[in-house]
Amino acid sequence: MVSGLINENPIVYEIKERRDVRAYSSNTDELSVDAIDQLEVKLNICSAHHIRDIKDPEHPYSLEQLKVLTEDSVEVDDTKSRVRVTFTPTVEHCSMATIIGLCVRVKLMRSLPSRYKIDIRVAPGTHATEAAVTKQLNDKERVAAALENPNLVEMVDECLSPSFE
Amino acid sequence: MDLMEKLELVELPKLEGHTDRVWNVFWNPVSTLPILASCSGNNTVCIWEHNSLSHSWSCKTVLEETHTRTVRSCAWSPSGKLLATASFDGTTAIWQNFGDEFECISNLEGHENKVKSVSWNVAGSYLATCSRDKSVWIWEVLGGANEYDCAAVLNGPTQDVKMVQWHPTMNVLFSCSFDNTINGHSSTVWAISFNAAGDKMVTCSDDLTLKIWETDIAMMHSGEAYAYWNHLCTLSGYHDRTIYSAHWSRDNIIASGAGDDAIRLFADGPSYILLLKKENAHDMDVNSVQWSPGEENRLLASASDDGMVKIWQLATKQ
C-alpha cells in the first residue's frame, strides 16, 4: 500500500454500460435535428473523446470510475462552439485537482476542432480552493506555461494514455 | 450615430509565417516604412515589412535560437532601433537592427520564471519587465544600449503580473495582474493602454469588461507623489469571453481583442459607444491588438492563437 497519497481510499463506482452513439441516434426519430446533433456532440465528447477514461493521477482508476466526471459533467453548445466540463475532486483538499483539470483540458484540446472554446471548472462546493483552481485552469497563459513544463506534461500524458484492461 | 455606421475594418493580406500561436504584436514606432514585430509560442519572433510595390507583407527576419520557451511579449524602444523580447524561459533579450540583420546584443536575466511583458519608458532609458514570480523589474539602459543594469525589483504585486506599461509621457510604471482586487475588476486584468495625452487609460479583463480611468494630468506633472486615477466607466455587456488586449489609438479609438475571436472598436468618451464589432477576425482567440503609430495610416495589427498576424485598415464605407 503506497502511503502519502492525497486520497488513500477512493470510492470506486461501477460505470454504466457504454452507449453506442449510432445506436442511440437511431432511436431518436422524434427529436429535432438540433437536439440530436447536441446529444451526439455531447456523447462524442464523453465517449469518443474518452475524457471519462482519463486516469486519476494517483490511482489506477478512470475519472469516471471515481465519479470525478460523469455524463452530466459536460455541457455543450455546438452552435456557439462552447464546451464546459465540471469535475468533482474526490476529496475537498485534493491537490491533484489542478492536474486533473489540466488533463481534461489537454484531452479536449487534442480532440475537438480548434473553434471550440473550453471552460473547465471544479464543481461548486466540492473543493477548499475551488475558485483558485478554476481560475488557474482557465487562464490560458498559465496553462500554456504549465504545458511547457516537461514534468507536468509527462504526468498529463501518463493520465491520458490508454490503459488496456 | 453616423460614425458607427460608416466605419469598417478592411483586412489586408494575411501575414502567415508563425507555426504556433502568436501572443503579441508591436509596431516599430519610428520607421518611415511600416515594420511590425510579432512573437510566438514556438520561441521565435518575426519582423514583418511591407513591400509598397507588391502591396504585400513578408517576414523579413525570424529571430530564433535565443529564447528556449514561448516568447510572450515584444516591444520596440522609442528610437525604433532596439527590440526587447520577453520569454517564459525567464529572460528578456535585446535585439539590435544592423541593416538587414538583427543581433541579440544583451540578455537580461534575473526573474525566477516566466517573463510576461516588457515595456520601454518614453525616453528609452528604462525597461520594465514583469513575471509569474510576482515581481516587476526595472532595468536602466547604460552606455550604448549594450548594457543593462537592474535598477529596482518591485515586489508589490501579490500575484502573477500580466503586463507592465510605462506612462506615455512620465516615468511612472503601471502593472496589472492575476490578482484583480487592486483595481476594481472582478478577475484577472490582462492589459492596460493609455491615450496619447496620458490622462486616460483603459484596462481589460477576464471579467469581460473594459474599464476607463482618468487622472488629473496637471497633478501628475507637478510631481505629486500619488496621482489618483478615477474610474470613469465600465464597458460591460459587449464581450462574452476574456478580453486579452486593448489599445488606445492616437485618434481616440479603443480597440479590443478577445477570446471570442473578435475585434471591437469603441469611441472615446463621454459616450464610449461600440463603433464596430469584427466577428471572426481570427479563427481563434485574439491575443493582441495594436494601432500603428503613423497618423495617416490607421492600421490595426492583431495576433491570434490561430498562428496568424493580420493587419486591418480602418476605413469609412463608401
From TrEMBL, chain A:
Kinase in keyword set: no
GO BP term, pick one = chromosome segregation
Record-linked SUPFAM superfamilies: Fe-S cluster assembly (FSCA) domain-like
For whether the record's keyword set contains Cell membrane, the answer is: no
- Pfam entry (one): FeS_assembly_P
Q: Which keywords has UniProt assigned to this entry?
A: Chromosome partition
Domain (MIP18 family-like): residue spans on this chain: 51-114
The UniProt entry's sequence similarity note says: Belongs to the MIP18 family.
Record protein name field: MIP18 family-like domain-containing protein
Species for this entry: Brassica campestris
From TrEMBL, chain B:
Keywords in alphabetical order? Repeat, WD repeat
Q: Which InterPro entries match?
A: CIAO1/Cia1 (IPR028608), WD40/YVTN_repeat-like_dom_sf (IPR015943), WD40_PAC1 (IPR020472), WD40_repeat_CS (IPR019775), WD40_repeat_dom_sf (IPR036322), WD40_rpt (IPR001680)
**UniProt xrefs under SMART domains:** WD40
UniProt key word Repeat: yes
Its GO CC terms are: cytosolic [4Fe-4S] assembly targeting complex
A GO term (biological process) for this protein? iron-sulfur cluster assembly
Q: Where are the WD repeats?
A: 15-49, 64-96, 108-141, 182-214, 279-318
Q: Name one Pfam family in it.
A: WD40
List the SUPFAM superfamilies hit by this protein, alphabetically: WD40 repeat-like
Q: What does this protein do?
A: Essential component of the cytosolic iron-sulfur (Fe/S) protein assembly machinery. Required for the maturation of extramitochondrial Fe/S proteins.
The UniProt entry's sequence similarity note says:
Belongs to the WD repeat CIA1 family.
Name of the molecule in the record: Probable cytosolic iron-sulfur protein assembly protein CIAO1 homolog
| Species the sequence originates in | Brassica campestris
